[in-house]
Structure formats: structure tokens, C-alpha cells
Amino acid sequence: MSRHPLLLLILWSACLFGESRPNIVFILADDLGYGEVGYNGQKIIRTPNVDRLAREGMIFTHHYCGNAVCSPSRTVLMTGRNPGHATTRDNRDVGDQEQFPLPAGITTLPATLKSAGYVTAAFGKWGMGSFESTGNPLKQGFDHFLGITSQWVAHSHYPPFIQDDGKKIPLDNGPGGTPGHANFPADADPKDPKAFAAYIGKDFSSDHTIAGAEAFIADNKGKPFFLYYASRSLRTDQGRLRTQPHPAHDLRRDDHQTRQRSRTHLGRPRESWCRR
Is pTM beyond 0.90 here? Predict the structure, then answer.
């Protein structure tokens, strides 16, 4: 079995397309379920943009995520290795809320595309190492990164900062941002919108990553590019706001919190895409 599946994929693509290298926009939707998009039968949540992508493009019904949790799943995607050979096996932290980094010298999807003449950029949640580690996205084949490397910090829709090629840009959400993981107070009423005020900040981080991705496309439309957009807008941790007992034991309460989350955090028509 080849140890370089990504390289073989790019070589095959080069033979297929010749000098006409297609632009690639890969959108990773954190925690989006199979049945939560219109083209798969969803009737309540409207996803017209992703439905159009499905209608005018291709649907890969066997394109599964590589693991059940964030960091190793993303590692499988970036390296092309199966979970048994991936360098990350869980969401283990290595300090400062950062995850186990991609090692130096490993073959990655962006680096392979870059060697084929693509301009590369990543936006959103990383979760494969800090800028101070070997997992730095700029060391793993990306020309540009705008987002948050720590997946725990990224789980807040209103974090205290965003990272632009390693430089921390403060956001107007206070020094700690709003909590990305929290327990919903036992005495709070989940039917009262005011009960969710503590979890809503002023500066929605996805506004920045969306604007950055749109600018990247505009700046590079005349050349082959690879845009990796790892959205956090569907992330469940902040929206679930766990109660006791666990919401899975109280479907009515969990359903209401899901609807509340959709109104407060997910009411952004530009964001809904494929499974992590």
C-alpha cells in the first residue's frame, strides 16, 4: 500500500485536468449531521446554498470523517492516513489549550497542492497544533491562516481573539470571550431568551473568517487555489449548555435549546455545509 495517497491523488488529478487545475473550496462543518441539509431531506432547516452546491456539483455519499472527535478527524483529512496510522488519536491537549501537533516532514494535503502550483489558505478552527509547534498551519502547506488554532478556544462563537498568520487580533468580546463549554444554570429558564445573554458576545468570529475567505477568493481568482474553511458555527458545545440530567434524557428541553442556538448563533445563511 502506498504511503503517499495524497501525492498519488494530485498526480492523478494533474493527468486528468492537464494545465486546467480546478480551484478547490473545502468546507468542513463541525457537527453537521447527514439529515440536517435540504438535499438530504431536511424540511425545517433551510440550506439553499448547500442545496445548490449539491444540485450543481457532486455528492460524495461515502466521504466519511476519519474519527469521532475533532483533532484526529482533521488529522486524517490533512494527511490522508487512516485513523490507525494517524499521528493524532484523540483530543489530547499539550498545553495552553492546544492539541497534539502535526509532525514535521509529514505529507499533507495543502503542501501537496502547493507543490502543484496552488495558493493555499485555511480559515476557522485548526486543532492540529499551535503556531509555536510543528503543527503550525504555515509549516504544513498553507500560505495563509485566519482563525484559531486551539479547538477549545474556537468552540466559542465569541472568543477573545482571532489569529491572523500567528498574530493575535483582539475581538470585542472581553478578555476571556464568552464560554465555549458551559453548564446551563439549574435555576435558569431555557424558554427565556435572556437566560442565554451570558453566552452571546459582540464580535462574532465567523464574520471575520467569512470575510477573509471571500477576500482570498477575490485576490486569487485568476490562479489555482485551495481554500479550506473549517466552520465552527454548527458546533454543539456552546449551544447545548448541558443541564442535569443530560439533555439527551429530556428531548423537549434539548430541542428548545437547539432552536434557541439556531436563533442566537446560527442565523447566518452563508454557513452550512458538509459533515466533519
Answer: no
